[in-house]
Every structure is written in C-alpha cells, then in structure tokens.
Amino acid sequence: MWHHDILSTIGKTPLIRLNRVTSHLRATVLAKVEYFNPGNSVKDRIALKMVEDAEKKGILKPGGTIIECTSGNTGMGLALVAAVKGYRCIFTITDKQSKEKIDILKAIGAEVIICPTNVPPEDPQSYYSVARRLSQEIPNSFFPFQYDNLSNTQAHYETTGPEIWEQTEGKVTHFVAGMGTCGTICGTSRYLKHQNPKIKTIGIDTEGSLLKKYIETGEIDMSEVGPYLLEGIGEDFIPANLDVSVIDYVIKVSDKDAALMARKLARLEGLFVGWSCGAAVHGALEYARSLSANDIVVVLLPDHGSRYLAKIYNDTWMQDHNFLEQESLSTAEDVIRSKNGKNRLLYVTKKDSLTHAISLMRENSISQLPVIENGQIVGSVNESRLLNMLIDDPSLKDCSVEQAMEDPFPFVLPTTRIDVISKMITSETPAVIVQNPDHTYDIITKSDLINILIH
Ligand SMILES: Cc1ncc(COP(=O)(O)O)c(C=O)c1O
Asked: Relative to the CA of 183, which ligand 1 atom is closest?
C-alpha cells in the first residue's frame, strides 16, 4: 500500500502510554503524539483542512499565495500542503519563536517575515496585522487566519476526536490539551463529548494569557496579559475557535514547569517533544492525582523537541533562565532527605527465611531488600523473583535467603546526581544503595526517584 503524496500521511498518530512519569498515579495516562505527522506537529491537520475548504469555496485558486501568521507549526503544515499543491507561501512569525522553526519554514520554500512579539494584536507591526495587510495587497492570496478559521476546529472534530475515541475503544474519560487558537481542544472535545457527555476536558494555559480567566468568568481581562516564553499556547485575544462550553477545567502551567516536564519526557519516556507538550503533561499529571484506576486520560502532545534544541534542551539556556537548578543539582542525598526520615534501611540476613523476607516486604509495601552480613551488603532479594521461585516450588518457603539472593544493588555516593541514578535504576535493578561516609547505607528505589522528580 503506498500513499498518493505526503499529505495522505497526515493524522492517525499513535497513542502512547506514559509509564515512569506517572508511576505515582492510579489513572492511566496516554499521550497522543502529534510529531508523527509529516510536518512534525498537530498543525498539519488544520493546514490541510483550511486549504481544502478554501479551494472548495473558491477562495484559493491555482497558483495562489497562502499568507498566514503562525508560531511556526501551522506554517510548517501549510508549507507542506503548498509544496504538494503548488502554492506560494508567506508567513509572519514573532521574534520569540525558535530559530529552528524559522529555518525549517525557509527550508520548505516559504518566505518568512519576523515581527516583534510584545506589541498588541491590533498594532500595525504585529504578526497578525502584517499578514492581514499582505493578504489585502497581494492578488489571488488566501489568509487562513487559523485563530478565527472554523475549519481549524472542524479538522479536529473530523480526525483527532474520532482517532482518540477509536484508539481507546471509547474508554477515554478525560482529554487534556494546550490552548492557542483553541482549535485542537474544542474540535476534539466536541467530538468526544458527542460520543460520551461524561468525558471531562482540561485546557492548559500559560501565565501571561487571558484564556483561563475568560473561560472561567467570561471576562476579557487585559491585566492577565503579560510576557511569557512558552511557544504555541496562551493568548492575548479571544480566538473565534474558542468554545467555552466544551472545556470543563483550565490549569495554568509556568514556562519553567513546562520545560522541566518536556525534558523528563525525553529522559524517562523517550519522548522527545516540544515545550508546550511539557506544559500539557505537567497539567495532566497535576489533574490526574485525584483520579482513579478506572480513569483513562488522553493528553495531546503537539510537536517535536527538535524545534527547541537551542532553548529547553540546552542546559546553558535553562540555567540562564533559572529553570535548571532543581533538576541538575539533585543528588542521592537530596532524595534521602526528601524521604523525611522514612528511610530506615530495611534488610535481611543470609540466614533469614524467604517467608520472613516476603512478609517484611509486604508489611512495608516495598518490593526489594538488600542482604546484609556483618554490616556489609552482600546481596539483594526482590519480591517478583521470590514469588516466582515459590510458585515453582512452594517448599522453598523455609529456605534461607542465601539460596535465593542475587547480586547487591549498585552502590552510589551521597553526591551522585539523580540523572545518573535514573539511568542505573531499571526493571532488573529496582534500587541503588547509597554508601554514606560513616559506613552506613541508605536505599533509593524507582518510586523515591519519581517522587523527588515530580515534587
Ligand atoms: C507547539 C504548539 N502547541 C500547542 C498549540 C495549541 O494548539 P491550538 O492552536 O489548536 O490551540 C500550538 C498552536 O499553535 C502549538 O504550535
């Protein structure tokens, strides 16, 4: 089976379970990963829909020019559509957007005009006004204006919503998405609520945006508007695609929390995603704390991390913005301290019975123990291995730990950084031992690590 052209590969993006960043939650959290689209973002969906609807309405004719104001991703989608259909592209973009985004647009043949970020939308220099003016000056041009173009919402009603419903077999209970034009959240939410009105939709907003207050109160409060660094979400005016009736709750996420979560998704889930994806997951995990094991949360991740290499994935840039202190400086010592005294090292000796080891783990709801002999760590036992042994041969229950123990957990120092420790802890090695200068030991498990990462 082959595709007629790159455009027919848009959509049908995967739904991927988040595991390590969610191990403290009961609910299941699934990520709808939109960087699998050919333009590496969710905006490919609306780009195709807005162009096809304009062609149907005769607004866009062959050889025409597409002019749009974009944070980069919609431009990328439109540039792909234009490349295949033979249209010229002119994009206005604000100077806060990453260099990577601007270079990619030029690479696909688009003309790019950079406009100042911190001017009001109605200012003649704003990237909205420049695009509108050009579309009035250039004949046979089409100005999609994604913010008010309802094909934006419709694209998600026709594709993103149905995909999520089908991929979760209708079991989705909560949908979480960042809000810029609001097309993604409103189109998807409207479709899902038409299937099951009990589904709850959570919008992710930024500091310096007026969307949360407007959705909660109906008030357009310009005092809410201020500078922020996050790209793609947050607004300083109300887009026509915003339908407050399909949004149940809004969470604001800071530039820093979004950046730190995006980095965690790369390091703990292998998902190399964009900045606003970090915001969406940070908000989703916050909301999911109160949910039950029956809940299935779908969080939409709009784009790819490669567009933010010079920013959130650059340690110097992160430190320059004071976004990095927590993550990079945390050490084994910090993890032990964060356990607030709940770190009395439990252990067994070689002579203890397997039954004793298992009940000690059960009583303390832990799933591994070090084996200590004359003050020295000589081995380890873990619950799943012991249980498998006992299932194979129940008579082993009175055997000594010595007969079932495995190698000691790896040793680290109190000063070992947590990003180093996080690479050592795996499904085979569920813990590490901290060797203290006073010859005592502490233990750090997977859940200890995640606790310090999320708090
Ligand atoms: C990176 C990124 N995240 C989130 C969004 C928000 O999506 P929507 O405009 O559908 O609300 C955008 C929109 O431009 C974006 O570029």
From this structure: 10
